[in-house]
Design goal:
Layout lengths: L7 H6 L3 H23 L5 H15 L2 H13 L4 H20 L8 H7 L4
Helix pairs in contact: 3-4, 3-5
């Protein structure tokens, strides 16, 4: 995946040495975490791409969706698979709006009713 140009805010942070140094430490730590997550082998590359695409769709940030969609296609996700990921995200969004939050007592029953997990 191509590295995006630094955001305007990231560029402006460079104006203050104290903030710049703190941001550099955070950015390096985050990048290490990101790499560890995306390079882990528990999921195959296509599954990782599908999960990342789903998370990007939940965020709703167009540039992030485009980036992960391109990566998913490069890793071999077919249009039907991409559509299913998008459909799952939309179905869960609708469910979240329509169903009130479950109480702790009702959670086990709700878990049993879910055919997926």
């Amino acid at each position: 995946m191509a590295t995006a140009a630094p955001s305007v805010s990231a560029q402006l942070i460079q104006l203050s040495p104290d903030i710049r140094d703190s941001h550099s430490t955070f950015t390096a730590g985050y990048q290490d975490f990101f790499n560890a997550v995306f390079n882990a082998s528990a999921l195959d590359p296509k599954t990782r791409a599908a999960v990342a695409l789903g998370a990007a769709l939940v965020q709703g940030r167009e540039e992030t969706v485009r980036s992960f969609l391109a990566a998913a296609k490069q890793l071999g996700l077919k249009n039907e698979e991409i559509a299913q990921v998008a459909g799952i995200v939309e179905a869960l969004k609708v469910e979240a709006v329509q169903r009130p939050a479950t109480t702790a007592a009702a959670a086990p029953a709700a878990k049993k009713a879910n055919a997926c997990c």
